[in-house]
Every structure is written in C-alpha cells, then in structure tokens.
Amino acid sequence: MATQQPTDLRTEYASNPLGIDEPAPDLRWQVETDRTGARQTAFRVLVASSEAKLDDDAADVWDTGKRESDRPAVTYDGPTLEAGTDYYWKVRVWDGETESEWSEPAMWGMGLAADDWEASWIRRPGEADGEFERGQFSYVRREFSLEGEVERARAYVAACHQYELSVNGRQVDRGQSFSYPDYHYYKTVDVTDALEAGENAVGGLFTWNGEGQGRPTAEPGFICQLHVELADGSERTVVTDENWQLREAEWDEDAPIRNGEIADPVEIIDGREVPFGWDEPGFDDADWDSAAVVGVHPTDPWERLITQEREVVGSWVEPESVTELESGSLVFDFGRVYSGLPVVNFEDGTEGHRVDMLAGYLLEEDGTVDDEEGTQWTDMRYGYVQREGRCTFIPFNYLGVRYFQIDDPGEDLGLEDVSLWALRNEVPDEHAATFDSSNETVDAVFELARHSVLYGSQEQFIDTPTREKGQFLMDAFNISRATNRAFDERTLTRQAVEEFVRSHYRYWEEEGRLNAVYPNGDGKRDIPDFTEAFAEWVWRYYRTSGDRGILETAYPVVQAVADYVDRNIDDETGLVTNLSGGEGGPYHEGIVDWPPEMRYGYDRDWPARTTVNVLGTSAFGRAADIAAELDRPDDEVEGYRERQETLEAAINEHLLVDGRYVDGCDAESASDHASQHANAFPLAFGLVPDEAVDEIADYVADQGMRMGPMMVPWLCEALETTDRIDTLVDLLTDAESDGWANILAQDGTFTWETWHCRSPELPDDHRKNRSESHAMGATVLVSIQRALLGVRFRDLEAAHVEIRPPASGLSSASGTVPTERGTVDVSWERAGDGALSVDVTVPWNTDGTVSLPVADGHATLTVDGDTVWTADGTEARPDGVVAVERGTDRVDVDVEPGRYQFVLE
C-alpha cells in the first residue's frame, strides 16, 4: 500500500508565507493517515525557483536527496536565498520501503534585504519639528501606469503605528507595527491580482497613536515599496516619495483619548469628509498636500525593518438581539465579548446628523450600556456625523465589545444593519482543539477559555482589548500556552519571545532582567516574577514546537536571568532574598499574583518569598535543560543543575515548616501563614519531598480556589501532577466560589482579570478598575486537555503522546489536540458497571502510551477486540501493540501510530 502524500506544508510554521528574513528556513509537513504503524523513515525535499521546475522533478535550487529521518521537518541548507524572491517546495516521505507521492507544492517568499529599500518614510507636512498630533489619521496616494500585463507584484509596507493598504479601490491589507523604530516591522503583500495594465492607484490610510502600553515612543510615518514584474520581463518599482499626495482623514483629532494606557482616540468620524474614490485611478487630489519626506530608509528614527510573520484577520459576527429603550436608543447584543470593530449601515442618513454610540460589557438596570464596569473606565464612546443618504460607520481601532448602544440613529435599524468585524491573530485552525464531556460546565469552561485566548491574541498577546493592549510577559506566557495547544499556533509566540529577548538587550543587559511589558511607552519597567518565569516559557514552547532557533536566540538571556537570580541568593539561608526589581511600585521584589486581592492574604513581608524562590529553581532548571539541548559543555549544564538542586534544598530546609510551605522567611524566623500559592508552586515544580507530597496536595486541595487567574495554572498543575482530579473538576464547576464557573454564572463571556470583578466585597473604585476581558486566565484549557481528556506530550514535538483518562471526576470525555505530527483524537467513557472504553487515534509518526486506571473488578483489557491483558497475568500483542505494563493502579499499553479501541472490563 502506498504511503499517503504529505500535507500541511509549512515554512517557518506558516503556510505559504510571503515575506521571511530567515536565511535558513525551517520546513515542516504531516501525513494524514490512521493506518496502524504508519511512520516516516526517510524524506526528500525539493526547492525550486518556480512551481514548474518542481514538476520536472529536477529542482534548480535544492534537493536534499533521500535522507533517513523520522522527524517531519528539515532546515534549509542549500544555496544562499535571494531577497525578494519566491521559492517553491515539495516533499515525499518513505515508510520503510514504501514511497509516498509528492506533496502538493508550497511556497515561501523572501523579504527585502537591508540595502534593497528604495522607498522613503513619508508623513504630514509641517511635522519636521517633532510636534506630532496624537491619534492622527492620514490618507496617502499615488497613481502610476503599467505598460503590460502584470505577472507578479509585491508591496512591502509599514507604518507607525497602523495602516490599511488599498490598490485600485480595494483594501488589500491591514497592518499593525507597534514596535520601536530602530527595530520596526514591515509586511509583504501580494498585490498581483489587484493591479492591471494601464492606470493604477495605490494608497494607504495610516494612523499614529502616540506612546502607551504596547506602543513605544516613536514618530508617525508610512513607507511602501511596490515591485511589479510584467509579462514581457520588464519590471517597475513604485516607492513612497515626494510624489505621493496626502490629506487628513475624517477622524476628529480633537477627540479625547480612551484612557492613559493605550492612547487610542475616541473615534468621532465625519462621514461627510470621506474622500470616496481616493484609492482609485483618476481621483482628483489637486487640493491634497505633497507628502513630507523624512528620508530614504533607513533614516532617523527608523534604523531597521524586519518582516512581520504574524497576521491579524477578521470575521463578521452578527448581533443576537436588539432592544429598543424608552429613549429610542437601540442596544445590540453580540452574545459575548469580542475584540473588534462595530459597523453600522445607515440607509437614510441626514446631512450633519450626529449619532452617538457606546460599547460595553454590561448593562445598567435601565438597559443602557454600562460605561464603567468591566472595561476599567475606558471611554468606549463613538461618534458619527452622517452624510445624506446611504452611509456606513466603521472605526479603525479595535475594542472589546459585547453590547453596542446607538443613540438617536435617525432611522429604524435592525439586526441586519449592525455587525462586528471581529479581529484576532491568524491561526491554522481556531477549532483545532475540541472538548466535550459528561459535564456541561466543564465544556462551557473549555469554550470560555478557547474564545478568550483567540481574541486575546491580536498584533501581540494583549493584556486586554480595552484599557491596556500591551503585551505583558506573564500574560503572554499564559496565553501562549493555550494558543499552542488549542490552535497549533507558533508564529505569534515566537514573535513574543523574540520581543522580550530584545527588551533585555534594550533595557536590562547589565541587570539580567526583562521588561514586564514590551513594546511599551514607559520604557524600563520590570516585574521580578515575570523575569524568573521567562525560561519556563521558552522551554515549554520549544518542547511543543521543536523550534530550536528560539532556544538559540533566547539562551543568552536565559543565562542572564539565571545569573540575576543567583546574585540575589542570601549566603546565610541559600534562598533568593530581596529579589531586585519592580522598584518604586506595587511590583517590588515580585507580585505573587495580580491584582492584589488575588493574593488571598499572602504574607509578603519577608525578604525571602516562597513563590519567588520556586520560580528561581525553574530559572536554573530550564537553563540546564536548554544548555543540554544546545549541546553546551557538561560543566555548564551541571552548574545550572547544581544551582537548581541547592536552591530546592534551601527551600525545603527553611520554608517547609511543620508539613506546610509558609509564605516566606528570613534567617531567624518564618511566616506563620501557609498560603495556597506557597504550597501549589512547589507541587507544580516537583520539589516537594516524596514523603510530604500527599499531605501538601491534600492541603492545597482543601483550600478550594485561593489563587488568581494569573497564577492559577500552577494550581491546576499541582492538582494534575498529584492526581487530585476530583478537586480540579470541583474548581472548574463550582459556580458559587471563585473560578471560571462563577464567571459563567454571572454571564461572563471572556475570562476575567480577577475572580472578583463584580464582587461587592471589592471597593467600588477597585471593581471598576478590573477587566472582564483578560485572557491570562484561560490556561485552564491546557489543564482540561491534560487532566480530563488525558492527552499529555512526553517528547519533543509530541513525538510520544500519553493518553491517560482520569480515574474519576468525569464519566466521559472526547476531544482533539493538535500536535506537530497530527491530531490526537480521544474519546473515553466509563459505564455504570465500571467498564471503561477508550477510542484513540495516535497520529502518524508518533509513539503512544495509553494509560488506563485499573480498579477492583477489572479483569480484562482488549484492544480492537483482542485480549492484551487479564488479571491472572495473561498478555498478548495484537497489531499495533508494542508493550503492556501493569502497575498498582494502572495498566500502560505502548502502541504504534493508528486508531484503536480499548475496553477495560
């Protein structure tokens, strides 16, 4: 039987990326098959300068030849790749002596080299003195003629901060470049189909917000270089320069900003000022200004342009209902909170009539949209001045939106007239991970988490789509964990890790730290706990993705972080003491959890804090792991491991008091408070002495939920690793106590910053300063996959997966988990008589271990109807079963790739 052809070809983790800078890109593939034992033993990759040359089976760029390998990936090591050039590739694989068909072709495009830029940065005239209007929107345009049919066309474009690129009346791209100007992003856009022989027009609408969270200090500017190849072999390049025309857009630049964090303006748009046809040939731009030229790139302040490999995409969401209030205002409900742009179509606008609008998460008692709670006092207003007749309101900057109120619309509006353009980071499949179980609340929590991390991922991992759109390190770590497992996401995580690496070199190279949020407008600001956790993030991402390049990039910073922790170890106790960082604010020496009410009384008044010390062991341990993976010298690896073990010993000596981990200590005494944080962290990181594990796990479990959404992943891992599955299910489903079920019970539709967002116990000003759209709490999705569905990764790139249904907690569960080698599909059910049936699909090229809980009365295990184990010791090996091992409470069956049905009776 022929091996099925490879599919899902990816270059640098993306499908057919148009612009990459990587000189040696990583190429990956999968094979979709459930044939028992199907695996790769060898591969061959061809790379060519055109798809036609691939068809000849004689690639003109690179041919790996047949290479013996079970890894479905290869790093390009052929001739030097040329900037601005497209490459095509395909792959075939072998399973033993069986050869597959060639895959369908894939491609990638190289970005521009530094000296390929001919375009200039342009902006409004009169801004040379450095006085820039915050929240400005500008149109730029250029017309040109092409003498012949277009064969290929690429636009290389960037703006500070955002842009929409249009060609011949059609928007072809939207980009965000919230980055420092000395390390700025640009995108490569295919505009082949948008251009035509004869007259053409290209233009951009770009905006500059000013500095804020996630928006560093910079200057307004726009750059575009359009390269066109014609069918006759000739080429044409159009660049931004003094020949481009510019005018202010229809946004009111005197509008207030929404808050002091993001600097987005309240969008008040005058529909009468829209320059219809501005991006089409023949438009009259005689009253526009000539764009001011800052200089040909590179020019101050833009020193470097790098390709932006992630993408923001949109989809339409229709409202579920509309309510008319006594005032005549209309309130539309989109069902749950999305990050996006509310859009209103008016059929019969009145010239000069202003329509005021308001977005929000909650309703007041009178049905109006609440303008304070849930959104942290962000000014969520909009304004639109109508023109005569048909007109459309559409803003530029996204916000979190559930309810949308329209005051005095001037006409009847129905559900068909209002919609939401929901924005999110592009992922391979937003429904790659699925989950369904015997408990509806657990299912609802999974969906809550999936939705939250999907829309908490924009141009970067965001704190919240309302007040702070910045990328906080710990938030990003949490969201990334979920997006990796839920959507098979890679590129946004890699970008985030690389950005925090750059934060170290920009601000902290001497101190060994990283920024708490990056990029950002307030410069050098750190949170010690976040810095400590960085190596854990890098390692977990690597284990999931196999992205060796990120290890090489991050390792010097991981080393610096380990040294930073080491410098803060007290000689007398051996503990991390008064960990430097977060000076002058609420982040001093570490935050434990966030917001403050989520510390649940953690005793922070000690120089050595337990949570800080446990994270310190992770910094050392992961430095050792990464060093070993990169084949660093043995003494380097052993040095980090020794530091880890020494710190673990000090923790157990000084902070483990009377069978509990206390919150902190000094050389003479220790806290008398033993928080859930202080005990869950050691369990999650595996440093509790064996004889103390059960007692401490019981102590943690008995406290219920006493950790916040930021640090709750460690609580979930503590319960998972100690097999307290019933407690985990209780945390997920208790609607009366703090947690996800309580959010759902209060009609929350996005994970919250704190379990207490609507708690009357919080002071009114605190409650209004808490966000109901924080994706950092959505890592529970990973815990559901691992502990309740039972899918765990044992090896790099999930080359070995474990399917481990829990012994209790649920009576059934089914779902899918994406991996680098394919999708793990699991369905298990426990019958009333105790019998357990499990259906499993282990992906191609993957080893599997199915670990089943054995209870009293279980006497027989069958696989696809064949008996493989009985209580009296009988064993057999049907097709696909490699080994069977019986433990005290489980039976483990090692299997090859394929689809299996297990029945334990």
From TrEMBL:
<dbReference type="InterPro" id="IPR008928">
    <property type="entry name" value="6-hairpin_glycosidase_sf"/>
</dbReference>
<keyword id="KW-0378">Hydrolase</keyword>
<dbReference type="Pfam" id="PF05592">
    <property type="entry name" value="Bac_rhamnosid"/>
</dbReference>
<dbReference type="InterPro" id="IPR035398">
    <property type="entry name" value="Bac_rhamnosid_C"/>
</dbReference>
<feature type="domain" description="Alpha-L-rhamnosidase concanavalin-like">
    <location>
        <begin position="324"/>
        <end position="409"/>
    </location>
</feature>
<feature type="region of interest" description="Disordered">
    <location>
        <begin position="1"/>
        <end position="25"/>
    </location>
</feature>
<dbReference type="InterPro" id="IPR008902">
    <property type="entry name" value="Rhamnosid_concanavalin"/>
</dbReference>
<dbReference type="InterPro" id="IPR035396">
    <property type="entry name" value="Bac_rhamnosid6H"/>
</dbReference>
<dbReference type="Pfam" id="PF25788">
    <property type="entry name" value="Ig_Rha78A_N"/>
</dbReference>
<dbReference type="InterPro" id="IPR013737">
    <property type="entry name" value="Bac_rhamnosid_N"/>
</dbReference>
<dbReference type="Pfam" id="PF17390">
    <property type="entry name" value="Bac_rhamnosid_C"/>
</dbReference>
<dbReference type="InterPro" id="IPR013783">
    <property type="entry name" value="Ig-like_fold"/>
</dbReference>
<dbReference type="InterPro" id="IPR012341">
    <property type="entry name" value="6hp_glycosidase-like_sf"/>
</dbReference>
<feature type="domain" description="Bacterial alpha-L-rhamnosidase N-terminal">
    <location>
        <begin position="149"/>
        <end position="296"/>
    </location>
</feature>
<dbReference type="Pfam" id="PF08531">
    <property type="entry name" value="Bac_rhamnosid_N"/>
</dbReference>
<protein>
    <recommendedName>
        <fullName>alpha-L-rhamnosidase</fullName>
        <ecNumber>3.2.1.40</ecNumber>
    </recommendedName>
</protein>
<feature type="domain" description="Alpha-L-rhamnosidase six-hairpin glycosidase">
    <location>
        <begin position="431"/>
        <end position="781"/>
    </location>
</feature>
<dbReference type="Pfam" id="PF17389">
    <property type="entry name" value="Bac_rhamnosid6H"/>
</dbReference>
<feature type="domain" description="Alpha-L-rhamnosidase C-terminal">
    <location>
        <begin position="801"/>
        <end position="857"/>
    </location>
</feature>
<dbReference type="GO" id="GO:0016787">
    <property type="term" value="F:hydrolase activity"/>
</dbReference>
<dbReference type="InterPro" id="IPR016007">
    <property type="entry name" value="Alpha_rhamnosid"/>
</dbReference>
